[in-house]
Amino acid sequence: MAEKALIDIKDIGRKYVIGTEVVHALKSVSLQVNKGEFVALMGPSGSGKSTLMNILGCLDTPTRGEYILNGIHVSEMSDDELAEVRNKEIGFVFQTFNLLPRSTALDNVALPLIYAGYSKARREEKAKKALESVNLANRMEHKPNELSGGQRQRVAVARALINDPSIILADEPTGNLDTKTSIEIMGLLEEIHSKGNTIILVTHEEDIAQHAHRIVRMRDGLIEDDYPNTDIKRVSPRLDALKAKGTDWEGI
Ligand SMILES: Nc1ncnc2c1ncn2[C@@H]1O[C@H](COP(=O)(O)OP(=O)(O)O)[C@@H](O)[C@H]1O
Ligand SMILES: [Mg+2]
After folding, report:
1. Which of these, 108, 101, 157, lies nearest to 134 by C-alpha position?
2. Is the CB of residue 217 below 6 angstroms from any atom belonging to ligand 1?
3. What are the distances in angstroms from CA 195 to CA 75, 190, 198?
């Protein structure tokens, strides 16, 4: 029997009605993603990438079509049920980091655990481990404005991982970062993927997309292309070399 897809959407549509105007952000999108895949979602601005990501991440519901996530019929769920699935299954990383400005890195990372019902001590313990895993052990008490862009995005990645989700959704995670820092964040995603996580990454940069194993291209609310990446670029060797030399690693 074929493996059941982790993500299975069929003929999904999403329209926005503003006054008398109707915008078909997604016209008809069908997509299957298996556990452990690393997918880059590409396409011009306005093609529907973020709309699709929001639906995949249960932040939004389609106006048409079916979404089965990990065997669960998500398209028929109430907002409360969706929130529960989202907490359990999805970790988000955004272009603008979306951290709470007045909270420390530790508190930002621990936040999703409040909804998961952990005690304060357990939350802090888990958040510390997550921050260590993204190489930020020495920045736990810093607030976002006391961190570099790359460090903020690493906090966001640690927060995305804290509930051990089955899928990481990253919408332009390197969009606000310089090249070197982008490579570092891609290295982190690579590492997360190698541990068995499923990753869907939106990017409009071809060289960033080359890190993924499959490339899906959208245009005008439709998928126009979907193919395996036969020339996967890997960051890890470069990053390992950087770390070995001690070059700027902490400063990134
Ligand atoms: N909340 C919204 N209200 C109205 N129109 C929207 C909304 N969000 C997105 N759109 C429209 O839907 C289309 C797809 O947007 P989006 O998914 O953000 O594209 P992308 O992420 O590929 O740039 C665009 O035409 C955009 O203007
Ligand atoms: Mg977008």
Report:
1. 157
2. no
3. 29, 9, 9
pTM of the entire structure? 0.90
What ranges do the domains of the chain cover? 35-64+74-251
Tokens 């070197």, residue located: 180
Q: Which atom of ligand 1 is nearest to the CA of 43?
A: 22
CATH class of 35-64+74-251: alpha beta
Take atom 8 of ligand 1 and give the residue whose Cα is closest.
Answer: 51
Kindly give the confidence (pLDDT) of every residue in the chain, 252 residues in length, as a single tens digit, with 9 standing for 90 and above.
Answer: 456 899 999 999 999 999 999 999 999 999 999 999 999 999 999 999 999 999 999 999 999 999 999 999 998 888 889 988 998 899 999 999 999 999 999 999 999 998 888 999 999 999 999 999 999 999 999 999 999 999 999 999 999 999 989 999 999 999 999 988 999 899 999 999 998 999 999 999 999 999 999 999 999 999 999 999 999 988 876 666 666 766 554 444
Q: Tokens at residue 10, please?
A: 């069929």
